[in-house]
Design brief:
Layout (H helix, E strand, L loop, with lengths): L1 H24 L5 H26 L14 H20 L4 H19 L5 H20 L13 H20 L10 H21 L3
Helix pairs in contact: 1-2, 1-4, 2-3, 4-5, 4-6, 5-6, 6-7
Length: 205
């Protein structure tokens, strides 16, 4: 029963993922391009997770600072990258626009995917969605954000996500999406890069 419920929630997550990506990009791009990159990204994420869970995690050694069970998160990100690259270079989509839409879609996908087995993660991702929409509505009024360019909402929630992951990895490294304590360093580096991107974007006129 739990597996059936998970599959149902995952199906809803995929629907929300595709819907919100399409909603964010439909005014600037044709549907064929939107769904081509979004489906490729989704398939890549799935392949990355499957490779991690069923091939790498069972054979890689676990240590005090490294837990291979958390590889699925990072391999999922790596797997989804080709779809984003396709959108940017082949379909000539603007990078920050594409990242912003993808982040929102994946947040909704994550909320549904974790709903049956890690409700606290779903609640956290749900709170990030709220932050996303607040920033998305208000970012043009921020005095420090001089450029007014799209991308702040997606980058903001990404920065928060990885910053929280870094802190949680130090406190409770056994959380299912973490690599162990080593995730604190990796997530902190990613958070720094994201916040640096926000700084650069804010003055990019």
């Amino acid at each position: 029963m739990s597996n059936i419920l998970f599959i149902i929630c995952l199906a809803f997550g995929v629907i929300f993922y595709l819907f919100f990506i399409f909603r964010k990009l439909k005014e600037d791009y044709v549907p064929e391009k939107i769904f081509a990159f979004s489906f490729l990204s989704l398939i890549g994420v799935a392949i990355g997770i499957i490779v991690s869970v069923y091939i790498l995690a069972p054979v890689l050694p676990k240590s005090i600072v490294f837990d291979p069970k958390g590889l699925w998160f990072w391999l999922g990100i790596i797997g989804g990258t080709p779809g984003v690259i396709l959108g940017i270079y082949k379909y000539k989509m603007r990078a920050y626009e594409l990242i912003e839409a993808t982040v929102l879609g994946l947040l909704f996908l994550g909320v549904w995917a974790f709903l049956t087995n890690a409700i606290f993660i779903s609640l956290f991702l749900g709170s990030l969605i709220i932050v996303y929409f607040i920033v998305d509505m208000k970012y043009k009024s921020f005095s420090w954000y001089r450029s007014g360019k799209i991308g702040l909402a997606g980058l903001s929630v990404l920065g928060i996500l990885f910053l929280v992951r870094s802190v949680v990895a130090l406190i409770n490294p056994s959380v299912i999406s973490l690599l162990g304590k080593s995730d604190a360093i990796v997530s902190a580096i990613v958070a720094f890069v994201v916040f640096l991107s926000i700084y650069n974007l804010s003055g990019d006129i």
